[in-house]
Amino acid sequence: MSQRIQKLQPLLANQIAAGEVIGRPASAVKELIENSLDAGATEIEVDIEQGGIQLIRVRDNGSGIHREDLLLATSRHATSKIQQVDDLDKIATLGFRGEALASICSVSRFTLASAQESGKGWQIQIEGIHENPEQAPLAHPRGTTIEIRDLFFNTPARRKFLRAEKTEFDHIDEVLKRIALSSFQTSFTLTHNKRQVRHYRKIEQESDRTARLSALCGSAFAEQALHIEAAAVDLRLSGWTGLPTFSRNQGDLQYFYVNGRIVRDKLLNHAMRSAYHDVLYHDRHPAYVLFLELAPQQVDVNVHPTKHEVRFRESRLVYDFIRRSVHDALASLRPGASPSAAPTKITFDKPYTGSSTKPSTSSPVSSFKIQEQISLYKKLHEDRVASDVPTRDALPKIALGAEWQEASPPLAAAARAPTPEKTPAPSEPPLGHALAQFRDIYILAETSDGLIIVDMHAAHERVLYERFKQELATQRVPSQVLFVPLTVTLREQEVDCLEVHRHSLEQSGWGFEPSSQESIIIREVPQLLAQADLKQLIQDLACDLLTQSKSTRGEELLHKILGTMACRGAVHAKRRLSISEMNALLRDMEKTQHGGQCNHGRPTWMQLSLHELDRLFLRGR
Q1: DSSP 8-state secondary structure symbol assigned to residue 367
Q2: Residue 217 and residue 223 in contact, taking contact as beta carbons nearer than 8 Å
Q3: What's the pTM value of the predicted model, to 2 decimals?
């Protein structure tokens, strides 16, 4: 016989909710600190004992809670943040669900004390179950203090899943770090077992933000991060993104905030990976602390009880804006520029919705066309020698800059730039003047500050790669008609999605038509991708478009092929260059986007300052 439906007891309902909201002590700390910030607190103290299992105490100097609202504050679905359904479309606070305090009360010995006027406070105590506790007067400064003792004392199954004291405290430490990164006008103090562990002072001036960034993310990140300020219609991106040379072996230094709320969002993560996709070495991860601001109506934060996930109303617009902003900021950094100086300011007249690769007026565009690129790519593979390091005689004589020798016409066209008008040269360019070539691999150049060492193959590879990308961006991608059309089976929703994006796909070289509700016939493909696994590529592309309204798989594969072409075409080791050829390459590097890394992510140059050289030889001692 089936059980009759009955309403859950309030305590049981709250404990179920606690399982979603309060997974460990750090979750409770997060909820309490967010409430303090919503109350306008500028000073927050967090006291922890035994990793938060024994005690969590959060004090703030916020606006406080009215005496008559103390008990109501601990009730489920009670909040001052929203009042009606329409408010869900314009949430501007960190909290709004009205579940956190009720969930915490149900699994702890809970004390709430608050005052809206200094010295005139009130206090209530709740132990596990809500039984209309009495209120007691209390001399309390303006603000609120919440104590949580014996967390999960009445839910032993949950308590036994907690980790060691140090592990739980490390999670609390990380929560405070994440919140402190976005709340520069608030001071935070963290104490563990009566010993102060952290103290982050509030920032009085904008120039002091870097000091907190160094304290939270390390001085190395602060020194090697690019300060970004990008704006478009109704969108603003600010913060810091690490140079490609400051990459990590895991994504442990990635903080993204949307309207002040830290989020974990696949769309944002993909946009950042795409912005860095050809400047990071192998499986390295970028480091960043970024803040996206947009109208509350454009983002839905009511997706998950933990509020870590969001949905964007215009997800493609947000994706393109972030991707292009970070890409352009990284590309704007040239040799000799300091990443930690004034922020890189980027302004778009309207939201960006196209490819992030566009011709640059600061970089010469070669006359090397896509059709010639394809012919050269095939020729390079047909004529490729078996040795990894070709002999000098086997290499084409590649000319750099204006210093031309005899070379194969297509390859020469790839490297040649239009002859610029003569202009007065600066007294010293950022990468200095070439001195010599070391072991036919490295270029040594002199500046007033020290010695520049350049990997000539990696540097020339980046120069060619950026020119290839510029040429690709200035014209429609050429197509190749398949001799035998390819039929690909997809889901009905994916076929419909490809139809919606037909125009942009045709511009990218694809030609297809639906053959049924769950299949398409591919008749044309981008010429550079003719040898790829077309069936798998179109399936992945359709899946991306359906889930993200954006796919960069085709573009990334095209760029991968162009990168291979650049690698094959760039000057190789054992190739002797003249001084004028070396200087021509240095000048090309200074004008090339992402000139600090080859397209595999390896560094192209480094500098040894006079101070570092003197220290190596103990000069001045």
Answers
A1: S
A2: no
A3: 0.72
CB atoms within 10 A of CB 159: 14
C-beta of residue 525 within 8 angstroms of C-beta of residue 561: no
Per-residue b or e along 344-382, where b marks 16 or more CB atoms closer than 10 Å to that residue's CB: bebebeebbeebbbeebeebbbbebbbebbbebbeebee
Rg (CA), the chain: 30
Q: For residue 419, what pLDDT band results from cuts at 50, 70 and 90?
A: very low
Instruction: Determine what percent of the chain is predicted with pLDDT higher than 90.
Output: 38
* 526/98 Cα distance (integer angstroms): 53
Helix-, strand-, coil-residue percentages of the chain, each rounded to 5 = 35, 25, 40
Contact 564, 521 (CB under 8 A): no
Give the chain's domains with CATH numbers.
Answer: 10-200 (3.30.565.10), 207-347 (3.30.230.10), 370-472+566-616 (3.30.1540.20), 479-552 (3.30.1370.100)
Q: Establish how many alpha carbons lie within 13 A of residue 133's alpha carbon, considering only the half-sphere containing its beta carbon.
A: 24
Interatomic CA distance for residues 524 and 579, integer angstroms? 47
The rounded distance, in Å, linking the Cα atoms of 88 and 301 is 9
Q: Residue 558, SS3?
A: helix
Mode of pairing for the β-strands spanning 261-262 and 195-200: unpaired
Structure-token pair, residue 321: 């804006």
**Average confidence (pLDDT) over 166-170:** 96
What is the C-alpha to C-alpha distance for residues 526 and 472, in angstroms, rounded to an integer? Answer: 12
Q: What is the pLDDT of residues 19-40, one digit of tens each?
A: 667 889 999 999 999 999 999 9
Query: What does each C-alpha distance from 465 to 278, 285, 372, 551, 569 come to in angstroms?
Result: 10, 22, 14, 22, 10
pLDDT the model gives residue 9:
75
Q: Taking Cα atoms as reference points, which of 556, 558, 549, 482 lies closest to residue 520? A: 482
8-state DSSP, 406: S
Report long-range pairs for 265-270 (Cβ below 8 Å, ≥24 apart). Answer: 265/309, 265/310, 266/548, 267/312, 267/315, 267/318, 267/319, 267/548, 268/292, 268/318, 268/322, 270/319, 270/548
> What pLDDT does residue 422 have?
43
pLDDT tens-digit readout, 343-402: 676 666 555 444 433 333 333 333 344 455 445 444 544 444 333 333 333 333 333 433
For residue 284, the model assigns a pLDDT of: 87
User: Which amino acid appears at position 159 of this protein?
Assistant: R
Note the pLDDT tens digit of each residue in 117-165: 998 999 999 987 656 788 899 999 999 999 999 999 888 888 888 999 9
Provide the pLDDT confidence category of residue 54 given band limits of 50, 70 and 90.
Answer: very high
Return the amino acid letter for 425: A
**Count of other CB atoms within 10 angstroms of residue 118:** 13
Residue whose C-alpha is closest to residue 222's, from 235, 234, 208, 211: 211
Q: Residue 460 has which token pair?
A: 């020339």
d(CA 114, CA 412): 76
